[in-house]
Amino acid sequence: MIVLGLIDSKPSAAAILQDNQILAALAEERLCRMKMASGMPRQAIWQVMSDAGITAKDIDAVAVAQRVSVFEPEPIPWNGWFEENAAASPRRFESVSASLAPIAGYIPFARKAHHQIKDLISRKRLEKIPELLYKEYGITAPVRYFDHHYCHAATAYYTSNYDKSLVVTLDGGGDGLSGSVYLGENGRLSRLSAVDSFNSLGNFYSYITHLCGFKAENHEGKITGLAALGKPIYIDILRQFVSYQNPGRIQYRVPMYHRSALRQIAKKLPENFDRADLAASVQLLLEEIGINFIRYWLQRTGIRNIAVAGGVFSNVKFNQRVHELKEVDQFFVHPAMDDSGLSVGGALAALAEVPGANPARLSQRLQNVYFGPDYSDGEIKKAIDAFGFAATQETDITQVIGKLLAEGQVVARFTGRMEYGPRALGHRSIMYQTTDPSVNDWLNEHLRRTEFMPFAPATLVEYADQCYEGLNGARDAARFMTITFNCSAKMSAESPGVVHVDGTARPQIVDPDTAPDFYKILTVYHGLTGIPSLINTSFNMHGEPIVCSPEDALRSFSQGKLAYLAMGNWLVSNPEAHTTSDNGRISASGKK
To answer: Starting from the edge strand earliest in sequence, which strands make up the sheet with 188-196, in order?
Structure first.
């Protein structure tokens, strides 16, 4: 059975699954080049069909990861809270709904009315999907709609390889909820609890992101990194707004919703608050409340394996705290924990409900996340020629890359199928040595980024235990760069460019089965330097999605004034980016 999974969210995405295999999965933002692009994933649908090698007539079902029923108690999600032009959006808050929202946390009828208004607005859009699919793509397969958080849970459970596990989802909001707890057993998911969208940990974190001067629903990762530079001196102020309440509940203490929340929090904070201290405070609050919530359900069920998804679990420090719980044996984060993963989740939900089929067949260890578009050497060379760069075709490009990195060069890499999810894992990456503690400043300047988290390391699997503490129970999560670990003294000494001020790092543990070519590059580099780790940061300029096509890669390469770009088997050199450093080695222009 072949299923097309869709999600119209931030970001929107499409995926093709056949039985328990992900054939293709892609966020619309990678194609339209607008970060966090929402709306119907029109380009992504065409692309995943092409990548999977299927036509419209091959599709047996379409799964949409959003509810469509008006009077369900868990209705349609909302979007665009922080967009200044939200009034121009077809999914804008109607005036009545917006008026009801701030008080809906306390008054049940207001909450219900708000949900129903939003539901009616979204229903009209969702009900047009079958007609749109037929007109634009010729797809006639039946369309089914699934709950947002159930789809998050499906991604976590069915890709964790756990037969029995606790499954937890936490995010900003979707289908009226901001969290859920499921029991996954024998291929079935049974919901144990849910958190209403008006008590959202994810949204509270976004409120603080906005107050710190960053873009909410986009730059929360900056707050996570910034938190390590501050002290949680505002924690008592933030505790006035949201708390954990037994048994197993997250609860806002006062009604808060978008603008009203921002005003209320701002009134309590000092006029000239320190944003690093505010970031540290909200990070601590997230960990306190989220850990208490998760611990309650672990203790209540007695289950020691936990699989998670949802935007809150893009917070790698929070994930470390969950993994470190004494109640946890095994911990897994679905690699596309954000809403782009819901395209896969919807398809998994549909496959789990195929009549007569055993849903346990869906559960498997996720081998890798290379589910995006691929480009041939011929297509790559055509793009190189169009941009006017000189390039050489190498017989062993991994050997060449490893040597360049050992010489101290910055090398961007574009190869194979693009990664699914928010992390670049070697196919759309920029690589450099981990030995330079100043790299966070000068390389981010090149890429026009303002980051507080250090660059993440990619580390050979054979040496991972020498570099990081507490890997057991979270090794699969570490393959996909979804969790931080405390670094060993050896790691801190030899790789200062990737160790944060709190002594942690967010590694990608690289093995020959998951990422064979990237493993070869690391092996060559280790053989020449004795260091088993490299910096791996996403290949994109600030504010842009990760590069998808050869043209995207060449444009970012040029704008970032990087020295080398390995594209498939082609090595592109940028002569304008070269300079000679004091020690006589060739390095990227601008290195300090």
So the answer is: 188-196, 177-185, 164-174, 305-309, 330-333
Give the DSSP H/E element, type plus range, for residue 112. Answer: helix 108-126
Cα–Cα distance measured from residue 243 to residue 292, given in angstroms and rounded to the nearest whole number? 10
CA–CA gap between residue 259 and residue 161 (Å, rounded): 41
Q: Locate the DSSP E strands across 434-555.
A: 457-460, 485-486, 504-505, 508-510, 533-538
- Residues forming a β-bridge with 509: 459
Does residue 440 register a pLDDT over 50? yes
Per the CB < 8 A criterion, the answer to whether 230 and 274 are in contact is: yes
Sign (positive or negative) of CA dihedral 478, 165, 23, 546: negative
Distance CA 234, CA 13 (A): 37
What tokens does 456 get?
């993440």
Per-residue pLDDT at 586: 34
What phi and psi values does residue 217 have, to the nearest 5 degrees?
65, 20
Residue ranges of domains in the chain, CATH in brackets = 2-148+352-362 (3.30.420), 160-333 (3.30.420.40), 377-588 (3.90.870.20)
Residue 387 CA neighbour count, 13 Å, CB half: 22
Place of tokens 């011929």: 378
Helix H or strand E encompassing 447: none
Tell me the C-alpha distance between 322 and 342, whole Å. 22
Q: What is the pLDDT of residues 83-109, one digit of tens each?
A: 333 333 333 333 444 444 555 555 555
- Specify whether the CB–CB gap between 335 and 368 falls below 8 A: no
Token pair in block for residue 585? 């080695």
Which position has the token pair 């964790």?
A: 160
Going by the DSSP 8-state scheme, the letter that residue 198 receives in this structure is G
The 3-state DSSP class for residue 419 equals: strand
Q: Residue length, the chain?
A: 592
Which residues on neighbouring strands pair with residue 63, listed in sequence order? 5, 144
